[in-house]
Structure formats: structure tokens, C-alpha cells
Amino acid sequence: TIAHSYMESIFSKKEIRLSNKDIIGIENEKSKIETVKSICEKMKTSFMKSEIGILAENSSWIKTEFEFRSKIENKILKGFIDLVFKDKENNVYILDYKTNQEIKPEIYVLQLACYRQAISQILNIPDASKIKCLLHYLRFDKTIDISNDCDKVDISQAIKNFE
After folding, report:
1. How far apart are CA 43 and CA 97, in angstroms?
2. CA 143, 131, 13: angle at the middle one, nearest 5?
3. d(CA 115, CA 80)
4. pTM of this prediction?
5. Can you tell me the distance from the alpha carbon of 143 to that of 50, in angstroms, rounded to the nearest whole number?
6. Rounded CA separation 88/109 (Å)
7. Tell me: the pLDDT tens digits for 6-34?
8. Choice between 12 and 47, residue whose per-residue pLDDT is larger
9. Would you call 122 helix, strand, or coil by DSSP?
């Protein structure tokens, strides 16, 4: 949550505020809080210097913590996308920040395929495969494109599996 707040502040220009809920367990340990803030600031700075960070910074349209609702198979899917933007050539990118201690993109394919479906509907992009799906692992400063894996997801079938 704290890392996401730092990342959101890059493009939203919102002031970073940590709530008591965010620091449960270390609320009375100022040095640990400062360590967490320092790590988050380094991740934020690294992202801003990364290829995808620069692309997002120069985008023609950008949304952070983008709340959406989408209809898939007579179900309403809702959620928040960490970052969605269009570059100057009108290519659309969905980016999800990850703070995992390991890089395992395969566990997020369905999540981003659903995000892609939602953005396809919201932005009226008939061919969802034109929307890039990216994970950015903050601890590693590494962006992974999982678009091809998302292309293979049968969202309708996946939704039925959750019934």
C-alpha cells in the first residue's frame, strides 16, 4: 500500500500520506518508517528513470488508480488499475505495480487480461490485443510484458470457473 502510494504520486502529483492502517506494526518505530519511506522513494525514482516510466511521463493521456466497472459474461467486474496510459501514437498500456519478493508474472495473467478487457470496453478499442499488459516489479526495477500471455486467456471461461 505504501509503495503504491509513492508510485501514484508520480503522475497524480498528490502528496504522499501514510495512514495509521498503512504502518500497523511499525507505528511506534520512527526509524523503520523512515527506512520504508526511503526504499519507496528509491523505487519511485528508479521507475521514473525506466523506459516505461519515461514513456508514461510523456503520455498523451494517463490515469492512476483508475477505477473501473466492466461487464463480462453478464457479470460486473470492478477494480482499480494502478496505471493506464496512451503514448503519443495512441498505443494503450496497462501497468500493474508488484512488490513481490520473487518475479512470477504467470500468476497475474488473468488479472491483467481482465483489466485489458475492461479498458477495451471503456476506451472502445475493439481489438483488445492492441493494449499492452505490463507488470513492473518495484523491488527489481523490472518491467515484464505479459501481453502475449493475456492474449491466450479465455476470460469467459475463467469467469465461469469463479461461479
Report:
1. 11
2. 60
3. 9
4. 0.88
5. 9
6. 26
7. 899 899 877 777 666 666 666 566 777 78
8. 47
9. helix
